[in-house]
Amino acid sequence: MKFRLALAALAIAVALVLQVSLFPHFAWHGIVPNLCLLVVVAAALTINAPAAMVLGFAAGVALDLVPPADHVAGRWALALTVVAFLAARVRQDVKPTAAAVVGTVAASSFVGTSIFALTGLLLGESGSVPDLLLVIAVAVVWDVLLTPLVLPPLMKLFARLDPQLATT
To answer: What are the pLDDT digits (tens) for 15-38?
Structure first.
């Protein structure tokens, strides 16, 4: 049990470090891929929903607190918890084929980034709606482009972490 938790935390930590240190050098319109979201989607497509939601919340809190975060804490925690819930619901209805995984990532990226952007708009932290729509579109493209590289190994890792909960 502790080993599974440690590996899940390590996956989030690696994704977070890459997201805030390496990927800003490849930013497109100032937007980087959300590797933490991809880890959460991989977990939600592989393990049970409550565990994936806890992982989503933890990843969101980490994104909210790690520098260069300049927003109200809790926005990513909310977004990634909802993403984990929705991706787990998709998993219950659809067998995770390659097309279903890419579609789930696209929808999850859209929903997660939209929740983050809309909460920022409500709190007066974000810009205009057209700017937010551009951010959401670019984020979805980034996340879908990285899906074939990131999700297959993560889904295998999460399936090995808890074979009883895996949905293989």
So the answer is: 999 999 998 888 887 888 999 999
Tokens 């007066």 belong to 124
Q: What is the DSSP string of 100-122?
A: HHHHHHHHHHHHHHHHHHHHHHH
Tens of pLDDT, residues 137-160: 999 999 999 999 999 999 988 888
CATH, domain range 2-161: 1.10.1760.20
SS3 28: strand
Determine the Cα–Cα distance for residues 82 and 74; give it in Å rounded to an integer.
12
- The residues, any chain, with a CB within 8 Å of residue 87's CB and separated by 6 or more, are 40, 41, 44, 45, 52, 104, 108
pTM, whole model, 2 decimals? 0.90
